[in-house]
Design a protein that fits this description.
- The protein has two domains: about 270 residues, 3-Layer(aba) Sandwich (Aldehyde Dehydrogenase, Chain A, domain 1); about 190 residues, Aldehyde Dehydrogenase, Chain A, domain 2 (3-Layer(aba) Sandwich), CATH 3.40.309.10.
- About 40% of the residues lie in helices and about 20% in strands.
- The protein is built from 15 helices and 22 strands.
- The longest helix has 20 residues.
- The chain is globular.
- It starts with 14 loop residues before the first strand and ends with a strand.
């Protein structure tokens, strides 16, 4: 069966999903398809009353199902069944997401959805393998730490990878024994609703996953500031993360995980495999049209090989061919909105005005949809807007260095520290730079995550607090208490 589909006839689960039921609602924020700019639906906006309803359903489901207190293996089995159903329904799930997002339908089935199912299985296995510990005390006492779920977790996910980000939040929270109220982006909400419907079909008790649709100022604030939300997990911009912290501080104190913005460097030394480096670097800024927080948008290359590497990267960038996300053959994504494409264009123009030169790209692509050409800017100094700003588009800058000290100095960013790349064949240099680079992730001779879900992700500086993925993501969804007994 072909994955390509007609965007005019695809049915969508429009509404909130609360207590195991779709609450249909059709009025709200206008939604436009990035691939052609056409209006196709409205995203309902959950007000405070609707968010209260979702939280109450989550609390009730936790109590009636005893989800946090059942035999842990039962949670594991339910989550594994959900992962199986996500894979079985991959075609439908991919079409729902591709319609309003920047993710091509073919990439979704082979990539995002398959990886999300894997990650849910990964976290499911923690349920009966991580728990309480006996701790050493004197022979007159018995000490232990007890691990418990928080209760109801509030989660907010971005528009760039809706299914993957929902899996990042829901998998560890549910495996750890919590219920979740999740708000997807108002630009890409419906795939998360369908995932929640699949969870109930898979046997996860109704009400443990509740999906409220809406924007940040109304729905997001009501969710993160709710007194019965015990913990918050957010992925998005640094600006939005700061607003969430402020909102939580106004209404109480609660733990949070924030995976925020990035402006990640990629350092290439002369001893690197330049063909491998060129492929990885070009892909990191053309994949999803650079709309990823970890996109490696700052190339820092040893001067002696700069021309050769730049030529190879440009050659790969220029092969990008735009297409609608509902065409299974499409490989190059649109920008999420006209507003975001205009922002990209304005930063590129500001970069040129500040002395940068576009070696390729630097323009909006012709035709329908919000496409922007892969762009490489040279001649930018450390204070250039293209170096400072998180552009969130297919824009790469290039700077050169002549020694390790200069390379490290250029790699540092005053705000961000999410990810970094290093290309070299020198093992000693690899170990030195792995310690020295100010980033939560260092990729060496590659620039991408693997399917080793044990590796956590999260940033330094204003790129975030806490970790997604890995053991850390499970552990952060449980709280601990100390118990000391006199014998």
């Amino acid at each position: 069966m072909s994955l390509s589909f007609n965007p005019e006839t695809l049915p969508l689960p429009i509404g909130h999903f609360i207590g195991g039921k779709l609450i249909e609602a059709y009025d709200g924020l206008d939604m436009h398809r990035p691939s052609d700019g056409a209006a196709h639906a409205q995203c309902p906006v959950a007000d405070t009353e609707r968010v209260n309803h979702a939280v109450e359903n989550a609390k009730a489901a936790l109590k009636s199902s005893n989800w946090g207190g059942v035999r842990p293996r039962e949670r594991t089995k339910s989550l594994q069944a959900w992962a199986d159903l996500i894979e079985a329904e991959a075609g439908t799930l991919a079409k729902i997401e591709a319609l309003s997002s920047t993710r091509p339908v073919g990439q979704l089935v082979a990539g995002d959805i398959a990886v999300t199912a894997e990650q849910i299985r990964f976290f499911a296995e923690f349920a009966d393998k991580e728990g309480s510990n006996v701790v050493p005390t004197d022979d007159q006492t018995f000490g232990m730490t007890i691990s418990e779920p928080y209760g109801v977790v509030g989660a907010i996910t971005p528009w760039n990878f809706p299914i993957s980000m929902a899996g990042w939040k829901l998998g560890p929270a549910l495996a750890a024994g919590n219920a979740v109220v999740i708000k997807p982006s108002e630009m890409t909400p419906f795939s998360t609703v369908y995932m929640a419907q699949l969870a109930v079909r898979a046997g996860i008790p109704a009400g443990l996953i509740n999906v409220v649709l809406g924007d940040g100022p109304t729905t997001g604030n009501a969710l993160t500031g709710h007194a019965d939300i015990a913990r918050v997990s957010f992925t998005g911009s640094t600006r939005a993360g700061s607003a969430i912290m402020e909102n939580i501080a106004r209404t109480g104190v609660k733990p949070m995980t924030l995976e925020l913005g990035g402006k990640s460097p990629q350092l290439v030394f002369a001893d690197a495999d330049l063909n491998k480096a060129a492929a990885a670097i070009a892909s990191s800024v053309t994949f999803n049209a650079g709309q990823a927080c970890v996109a490696g948008t700052r190339l820092i290359v040893e001067k002696s090989v700069a021309d050769e590497l730049i030529a190879a990267i440009i050659a790969q960038m220029q092969t990008a061919r735009p297409g609608p996300t509902w065409d299974a053959a499409t490989q190059y994504s649109p920008i999420i909105s006209e507003r975001q494409r205009s922002r990209i264009a304005s930063i590129v123009e500001a970069a040129k005005a500040a002395g940068g030169e576009c070696l390729t790209g630097g323009y909006a692509m012709e035709g329908a949809g919000y496409f922007y050409a892969p762009t490489l800017i040279s001649g930018a100094t450390q204070d250039n807007p293209a170096i400072i700003e998180e552009i969130f588009g297919p824009v790469l800058t290039v700077q050169t260095f002549e020694g390790e000290e200069e390379a490290l100095a250029l790699s540092a960013h005053p705000v961000y520290g999410l990810a970094s790349g290093l290309f070299t064949s020198d093992l000693s240099r690899t170990l030195r730079f792995a310690r020295a680079l100010e980033a939560g992730t260092v990729w060496v001779n590659r620039y991408s995550r693997s399917r080793d879900h044990i590796l956590p992700t999260g940033g330094y500086k204003r790129s975030g607090i806490g970790k997604d993925l890995g053991r850390e993501a499970y552990e952060t969804n449980r709280k601990s208490k100390s118990v000391l007994i006199s014998l």
